[in-house]
Specification:
There is one protein chain. By secondary structure, this protein is of the alpha+beta class. About 25% of the residues lie in helices and about 25% in strands. The strands form three sheets. Strands 3-4-2-1-14-13 form a six-stranded mixed beta sheet. It has a six-stranded mixed beta sheet with strand order 5-6-7-8-12-9. A two-stranded antiparallel sheet has the order 10-11. The longest helix has 19 residues.
C-alpha cells in the first residue's frame, strides 16, 4: 500500500500550481493533506476511485486536514476527544486530526500546531503534544497505528540545514524535540530516519532567501508507525522534486 502526505499550504493555491496532476501521478492508496486552509464547500475536488474526509478549522483560511483514500474505512473520527475525553476539547477547533480505522491498523493524518514566532504558542504546543501522545497510545493498545503529517519539528540536527543558528527557534526547541523523543520511546518509529539513518533530506523550505534553490531546509513532515509495523515498511521517500507548496510530499510504502 502506498501512502502520501503533503502540507499543501492552501489547497486552492496548490490546485493552481498543478496539484491534480501530481495527485494522479503519485497514484497513492491514501493521500493526506495538511494546511488545506479551507471551509466546507469552497472547493469541489474529487478523484475517480477515491473517497475523501475533511476536517476544517473553525477559523477561516487556517489549518485543516484531509484524506483521500481508495479503501473504505470501518470508521472515521475527527479530532481526539471521541477517545480521550472532552477535557481535551481545547484542541478540537483547528481541524488538525483525522483517523480512519481498518481491520489491521488505525491511520491518522495530523497537522501539529506551530509554536510561532517568539514561541508565543509553545505552552499550547506542549499541551497538544501530551494530548496527541495519549491519543495514539490508546489507539496503539487496540491495533497498530500509522500516522503522518506536518509535525512541525526537526527532531535531530541532521533534520535541518542550520541547527546551531536555529536552536530555540520554533520547530527546533529542546521542548519540541523532547516531545518527539518521548513519542518514539513510547513505541513508535520515524520511518524515514529508521531506514535512512545518515541521509539529510528536507521536506520544507522557507519562501524567503531562495531557500529551496539553495536546499536550506528542514525535515518536518513524517510517517510514523507502531514499532510492530516497522518490519512491513518497504520504503520511505521524500519527493523533493515536487513543487506547488513550501513543503514537498512524503511517501510510505507498506507491505500487506
Amino acid at each position: 500500500m502506498k501512502f502520501i502526505s503533503w502540507n499543501v499550504n492552501g489547497l486552492r493555491a496548490c490546485v493552481g500550481k498543478g496539484f491534480e496532476d501530481r495527485f494522479l501521478e503519485l497514484d497513492a492508496d491514501f493521500f493526506c493533506l495538511q494546511e488545506t486552509k479551507m471551509q466546507a464547500g469552497q472547493l469541489d475536488l474529487e478523484f475517480l476511485g477515491y473517497e475523501s474526509y475533511w476536517n476544517y478549522a473553525e477559523k477561516k483560511g487556517y489549518s485543516g486536514t484531509a484524506i483521500y483514500t481508495k479503501h473504505h474505512p470501518k470508521s472515521v473520527n475527527y479530532g481526539m476527544t471521541w477517545l480521550i475525553g472532552n477535557e481535551y476539547d481545547i484542541h478540537e477547533h483547528e481541524g488538525r486530526v483525522i483517523t480512519l480505522e481498518y481491520d489491521d491498523f488505525y491511520f491518522i493524518t495530523v497537522y501539529v500546531p506551530n509554536a510561532q514566532d517568539g514561541l508565543k504558542r509553545l505552552d499550547y504546543r506542549m499541551d497538544w503534544e501530551d494530548a496527541f501522545l495519549t491519543y495514539i497510545k490508546r489507539l496503539d493498545a487496540m491495533k497498530p497505528v500509522i500516522f503522518c503529517g506536518d509535525l512541525n519539528v526537526a527532531h535531530e540536527e541532521i533534520d535541518l540545514k542550520n541547527p546551531k543558528t536555529n536552536h530555540k527557534n520554533p520547530g527546533f526547541t529542546d521542548e519540541e524535540r523532547g516531545k518527539f523523543t518521548n513519542l518514539l520511546k513510547a513505541g513508535f518509529k520515524d520511518t524515514f530516519r529508521t531506514l535512512h539513518p545518515d541521509e539529510q533530506v528536507f521536506s520544507w523550505w522557507s519562501y524567503r532567501f531562495h531557500a529551496r534553490e539553495k536546499n536550506v531546509g528542514w525535515r518536518i513532515d513524517y510517517f510514523v508507525v507502531s514499532e510492530r509495523l516497522m518490519p512491513k515498511v518497504s520504503s520511505a521517500t521524500i519527493h523533493t522534486q515536487i513543487t506547488g507548496s513550501d513543503h514537498c510530499p512524503v511517501e510510505l510504502l507498506l507491505n500487506p
